[in-house]
Amino acid sequence: MHIHRYERWWMMFGIAMLIVFLAIIGVEAIVDNMNPPSGLRAIDPTRVAQTPPFDHPGLRNLSPGRYEAYYIAQVFSFNPSSITLPVGSTVTFYVTSPDVVHGFYIARTDVNMMAVPGWVNSDTHTFTRGGTYLLICHEYCGAGHQNMFAKIEVR
Ligand SMILES: [Cu+2]
């Protein structure tokens, strides 16, 4: 079979690029210890309501201006449905799900996670501006998905 010289160069270029990209991914994964986001803390999804700290979901004040918020995302609500924070608070959000995959997106912020059964996901945000922030599920989870939201009041 005859392959034109340019065709052969183009195939060599494609194979070389594939090797370069795979090498970059391999080096990043091993040398820089890069892993897929989240999924670092496991939880039994059938026992979320009995597993601390998700047995008492809500806001914890660690120190002045520092908070942790534990959320359970479930069909079709977030628990807690509302929290109130002072302006300037830094909050680490922890979220898990006992049923199906949900989204955890706080509008007007960069907090954007997935709530995956069996895993605890987390993200930290500092609320520098006051107002009412809408926490929404942005991962279709069933017939009541459009009603799945919560509020974060920052005053
Ligand atoms: Cu949803």
Set down the secondary structure blueprint.
Blueprint: H1 5-31, E1 41-42, E2 58-63, E3 66-74, E4 77-79, E5 82-85, E6 90-96, E7 102-106, E8 112-115, E9 119-126, E10 131-136, E11 149-154
Parallel strand pairs: 3-6, 5-11
Antiparallel strand pairs: 1-9, 2-3, 3-4, 6-9, 7-8, 7-10, 10-11
Bound molecules: copper (II) ion.
The CATH architecture designation of the largest domain is Sandwich
Number of DSSP-assigned strands: 11
Name the ligand types: copper (II) ion
Radius of gyration: 22 Å
- Report the helical percentage: 10-25%
Q: What's the story with the biggest beta sheet?
A: 6 strands, mixed
Quaternary organization: single chain
Q: List SSEs in N-to-C order.
A: HEEEEEEEEEEE
User: Under the CATH scheme, which class of the largest domain?
Assistant: Mainly Beta
Distance between the termini: 74 Å
Kindly give the count of domains: 2
Strand content: 35-45%
Please tally the helical runs, counting DSSP H or I stretches of 4 or more residues: 1
